[in-house]
Write a structure and sequence with these properties.
single chain, 389 residues, alpha+beta, four-stranded antiparallel sheet
């Protein structure tokens, strides 16, 4: 590492530490409030971390996915809602490269770096209510989309819609375009500040150069990596949640009056439980790290990646997702066995780790991933690329 790159790394670490400290201070209170974390989203804007996945020659930081996911996991440990928004921002930037032409991707990434855009999405492929139709001026969008995480307070949206032939098309355009209405209707028990509600589109104009048609959705070997990246985001959020819940429990015990802390620290059953949970977290982190490294290698391969290489990557990510999901749910619940009844006070909202994990792990059922892993283990069959595999 050169001296300048060392300074850059120290500067990035200091920025991240400051962001984590800021998010952690208000995490419990904001979990109670729900709604849009506008102030915190602006902190992320100001941090420069939105530029990470944009190449240096286009004005970005040129970070690799190993670096980006390390940050995602650290943010998730203190605030998984903001980690979700931050990670999805980088997924949208990658989507430009997966589905759009090289010229489109470069132009939009350069603008994103220059304008410091925060990207949101209305891409839910299972919601087919949004329609795209051609007219004399280009195209129009009409309909609705659900589960539009990060659409509120975003600068740009990536949107999927079905055309008159039933084909899925994807477009990228400004969130504040006439006819776009972002609804503030997300009020779930967990991930309460992801703004994952609905967006309505009424006669929204879309130009031909805003459609990501070449190669289009999953239209190339490289484009088929997008669902792997989306699933990897879930893996790292779950793993961060597990680490965060364990860290909060240890901090809570350490902050008890001396008699209580000593009692728990010498209790063999409490130590046994903490040992189990720590091992679970470490296992989840190890699998997540392996999966991220495998994705980084696949990303660097571009369209040279083979179907078998892509399939092996999908299995690595699915395995990490199973372990990370279970770790987040179990650690988020079982830490209370060690902390005790007083830790359930609503003031601390320590249940948010479990609630966030329970809400997010339902994104697509874990049973589908287990079936895919089993099919590979027994029959040597890799998952067929789709928006969820």
């Amino acid at each position: 590492m050169t001296r300048s790159s060392s300074r850059d790394a120290r500067g990035e670490a200091a920025i991240l530490d400051n962001l984590l400290f800021t998010l952690a201070k208000t995490a419990a209170e904001r979990d109670r409030e729900g709604g849009t974390a506008k102030r915190e989203r602006d902190f992320i804007r100001e941090s420069g971390l939105l530029q990470l996945s944009i190449p240096k020659e286009l004005g970005g930081a040129g970070a690799d996915w190993i670096n980006i996911f390390e940050i995602v996991r650290k943010i998730a440990a203190v605030d998984s809602s903001l980690a979700h928004l931050f990670a999805f921002h980088h997924l949208m930037i990658a989507t430009l490269q997966f589905f759009g032409s090289a010229e489109q991707a470069r132009k939009l990434m350069a603008c994103s770096a220059r304008e410091n855009w925060f990207w949101g999405n209305a891409l839910n492929p299972k919601d087919a209510r949004l329609k795209l139709w051609a007219d004399a001026d280009g195209f129009r969008l009409d309909g609705e989309k659900s589960f539009c995480s990060g659409a509120t307070d975003s600068d740009m949206l990536i949107v999927s819609a079905h055309d008159v032939d039933g084909k899925l098309k994807v477009a990228a355009f400004p969130t504040r375009r006439a006819g776009v209405t972002v609804h503030h209707d997300w009020d779930n028990m967990g991930q309460r500040q992801t703004d994952s509600g609905s967006v309505s589109f009424s006669n929204v104009r879309v130009t031909s150069d805003e459609l990501l048609l070449s190669p289009g959705p999953l239209g190339s070997p490289f484009g088929a990596l997008r669902p792997c990246l989306a699933q990897l985001i879930l893996v790292n959020i779950y793993t961060g949640l597990a680490r965060g819940a364990l860290g909060e429990a240890i901090a809570y015990i350490g902050g008890l009056p001396k008699e209580g802390a000593v009692r728990i620290g010498s209790d063999p059953f409490s130590l046994h439980t903490l040992g189990e949970l720590t091992a679970q977290v470490k296992a989840a982190e190890a699998l997540a790290s392996n999966a991220v490294a495998a994705f980084q290698h696949a990303w660097s391969r571009g369209d040279a990646i083979s179907a078998d290489e892509r399939g092996a990557l999908a299995i690595e990510i699915a395995s990490a997702k199973v372990v990370g999901s279970r770790a987040a749910l179990e650690v988020g619940s079982r830490v209370f066995d060690v902390m005790g009844a007083r830790a359930t006070t609503a003031r601390l909202r320590l249940d948010r780790f479990w609630r966030n994990a329970r809400t997010h792990t339902l994104h697509d059922p874990l049973d589908h991933k287990l079936k895919e892993i089993g099919d590979w283990a027994l029959n040597g069959v890799y998952p067929t690329p789709s928006f969820y595999s």
